[in-house]
Predict the structure.
Amino acid sequence: MTSPLDRLYARCSNRLLFFKDGWGDLARLRELAQAGCRPAAPQPIAVRWEAREETAGVVLRRGRFASPYAELPLPAESREAFFELVLPAGASDQTPVCVHFAATGDEGFLRRRRALALPLVGAGIGSLILENPYYGRRRPPGQHRKMLNLFSDLCAMGGAAVAEGRSLLRWLRQEGYTRLGLCGISMGGSMAAQVAALEEGPVAMIGCVTAHSASAVFTEGILSRYLAWEVLERQLGGQGGAVALMRELLDRTDIRRLPPLQRPAAAFLVAAANDAYIPRASAQMLHDHWPGSTLRWLDGGHVGAFLFHRPAFLAAIRAAFIALGAAGAPQEPAI
C-alpha cells in the first residue's frame, strides 16, 4: 500500500502539470536515446568565487562556473551553474567531501544545507551542494516553480546535472581532495548514481528514496498522474503511445545501462517501503545492479522519509564514507 501522505502531498504540490508545452525537440531526443550512454570524459571547469562566510566552526563558500553540458540547449539562465561548498573549519585535503544533488523542486541551497551539510560538518565531512538547472537562480522565466514546461527540459536538467557533477568531482580532485562521495534524495539520487557509475575511481555513493531509472518515476509512480498526457499524445498525432515513447526516451537514465561501481561496498541506499513516487521494485533493481551495496528499508513513504527519517540519510552517508576508507568520520550510530 502506498503512503497516504505521499498521495496528499502529490495532490497539493502539483496544481499544474509537467510538460504543458509538450515534448520539445523530439527528433533530437530520439537521436540521443538511440546513441545510448556514451558520455565523454568530464570537462574542466573554471570556478569563480562569489562569497565566503565563516561561523561556528563552518566555512561556507559560494561559487559558479559555466555548465559544460552541450547535448541539449539550456536556457540562458541555466548555462551558469551555482554551488555552495560547506566545510568544517580547518578542513584539509584529507577532509571527505560529499556532492549533493537536488530532489524535484529543491531550489537553492538552504534545504540541503540545513538537513545534510551542517549536520555532516560535525562528523568531519564537507559538502558541495549543486543547484539544478531550471531551479532557483537557474530557473527560466515562464516556468512555474518545479513544473518543467517541456519533456526535453527534464532530459536537459538531468543531463546537465550529471555533467556538472562529474566536472565538480574532477575539480575537487584537482584541489587535492581524494575522499569523495555523491548523494541525492529522490531525483538527486538518480543523478548521483549516474555520476558514481561513470567515475573511474572509487567514491562513496548514497541514494535516498532513489529509482533505478527516471522511467519508473514518470510512467509508473504517482507523478505519472501529473503530466500533460493530452498535450503529449496530441503532438504524436493522437495515435497513442506517449507512455511507451516516454519510457523509451527515459531508458537512457537506467542505471543498469552503466557499469557497476568501483567499490559497491561504499554504496548505501535508503528506500521507503510504501513509496508512491518510487516503485519498490525500482529501488530493489538499483541495489541488485550493485552487488555488495547496502539497502535499508524505512517504514512509510517518500515524503515521510525526508520529513521523519533524515537521521537515516545522515547515517548512510557516514557509513558510506567509512566503507570508502575516509578518515574523520565517526563510527556509524544505530538507526
Observations:
- Confidence is low (pLDDT under 50) at residues 326-335.
